[in-house]
Amino acid sequence: FPVTIGLPNEFEGIQDKGGYTIKVTRKGINAINAHPSESALNGYDFDGYVDNLGDMEDLRTEVAYMLKHL
Questions:
Q1: Which of 24, 26, 30, 23 is nearest to 44 (CA)?
Q2: Closest by alpha carbon to 44, among 1, 2, 17, 9?
Q3: What was the pLDDT predicted at 44?
Q4: Which of 3, 13, 19, 23 has the fewest Cβ atoms within 10 angstroms?
């Protein structure tokens, strides 16, 4: 099931349990504050990357496709 993560211990916990990590970004949308969880995973090697270019249904479709191909 999907969860939002932002800290290294969360990232490592998912990978340790055999889960997948996917970074979702949207051009022109930046962090709304300076909380460490907004940038703590910059530079981490995610299993997949999605550019969110559409609506929620498009995002679901992109993530589902990626999960089938990991």
A1: 23
A2: 9
A3: 96
A4: 3
| Alpha-carbon gap, residue 24 to 64, rounded angstroms | 13
CA angle 60, 65, 66 (to 5 degrees): 100
Q: pLDDT, tens digit, for every residue of 13-52?
A: 999 999 999 999 888 888 788 888 888 999 999 999 999 9
- Cα–Cα distance list, 10 to 22, 43, 60 (Å): 13, 15, 22
Ramachandran category for residue 49: left, alpha or beta (phi over 0 → left; psi -120 to 50 → alpha): beta
| pLDDT at 30 (0 to 100) | 80
